[in-house]
Amino acid sequence: MFERLRAAIDAALDSATAPADKRDVVAGMRDAVIEAHAALQGMRDDVARTEKELAVERNRLADAERRGRLAGEIDDHETVEVAEQFAAKHRGRVGVLEQKLEAQRAEIVLMERELGEMKAQMKKVSGSSSVDSAWRGIEAAGGSRPETDVKDDLLRDKFDRVAREAQADAQLEALKKRMGR
């Protein structure tokens, strides 16, 4: 599944030579990452279904083994044979489901690793955009980028503190009025 997504990202990166194509490349990569997230969630759902199937098969195996033991206690050889056949069938299914579950979990680990690589690659490509280079130029000229400007954060914190203090004062005044002070 990830081979197709990885191929789409690689093709987008290989075909993107001009800066104008970078947005298309990033958009394609973003779509691939979103598709990968959806696929990963589907795989997790599959693991949950397999775990439920495995639990049911284990219960069926335990029931067959219990019936065989009970039949053995009352010397019912025919029922013991039937119970052993069912137990063998359920034991085989348990083994297959355990292998399936192990493979699904390993595939999820691989998919998560691939997804991390895809995100890092997308971040690398989108992080060197013309917008970023424009902001670097503004910062070099003495300007500041809003999300990196410490003064804005300090000013915002000051406004928040003043607003909280005003709200506390208003609540205190309302409380004093109710108490008759």
Describe this structure in words.
This protein has 5 helices and no strands. It has 181 residues and is mainly α. The chain folds into 2 domains: 2-131; 143-181. Helix 2 packs antiparallel against helix 3 (77-127). The longest helix has 52 residues, at 22-73.
Show the helix and strand layout.
Layout: H1 2-15, H2 22-73, H3 77-127, H4 130-140, H5 150-179
Helix pairs in contact: 1-2, 2-3
Short recap of the structure:
It is flat and about 90 Å long. It is an all-alpha fold. Helix 1 runs antiparallel to helix 2 and helix 2 runs antiparallel to helix 3.
Question: What labels describe this entry?
Answer:
181 residues; 5 helices; 87% helix
